[in-house]
What we know:
The protein has one domain (about 40-230). The protein is about 40% helix and about 10% strand. The protein has helices spanning about 1-10, 15-70, 70-75, 95-105, 150-155, 200-205, 225-230; strands spanning about 110-115, 120-125, 130-135, 140-145, 170-175, 190-195. It is globular.
Amino acid sequence: xxxxxxxxxxxxxxxxxxxxxxxxxxxIVIAMTLPSLVQNYRKKVVETRLKKFYSAINQAxxxxxxxxxxxxxxxxxxxxxxxxxxxxxxxxxxxxxKWFKIYLQPYLNVVKSELLKNGSYIVYLxxxxxxxxxxxxxxxxxxxxxxxxxxxxxxxxxxxWQEISGICxxxxxxxxxNKNTSWKYHYDKGMEPFKAGWDGNIETLKTNSLYGCxxxxxxxFYCTALIQMNNWKIPKEYPHNLSY
Length: 244
């Protein structure tokens, strides 16, 4: 009786070859699906942090208006820090830093701030994102869903915006007092995704020769607006592999 049970057990057990084949198939399936799973996770993180930042920065602007009056009156287009002979930013010379610390920073959950090598001012937010104010203006803003240094290094940034824009850096604008037609989507508004020169057509956000998100030869600055217009969701056909 015992011998019969042993023979039946041997018949139902997997051979070593069968186990190896099964593991091999599982390995192939995992290798095929893992990149998609990772990219989907990155998309969710980017979507969540973009939407959260948009809400937080515009809440900050509204709170600042309660303390300082109409944003059109206190907004100023200011420059960053001066650079010394050794190529380092000079503390106390950044007008944009002084302005930002008065009108916006007190209303944001900032955990750290600093002057970058090029004189730009950057603040790091509690949720892991960061906001850089380019050295030449307080009109343009670059939001990073993750660490800026990681973004630049991972994408081999060499000074060309298309290497990171719409991938791990997302442009915004705050230009509430400019009535010029090119800024009609920013006039008397809070901080909005970059829409300078936009004609209001969704397809233009994809194909514009300067800023189009889908054209590999542009700087992709319209990508942020395209995501906003899709209810802060990354479009299914989005051409860039996101990171943060």
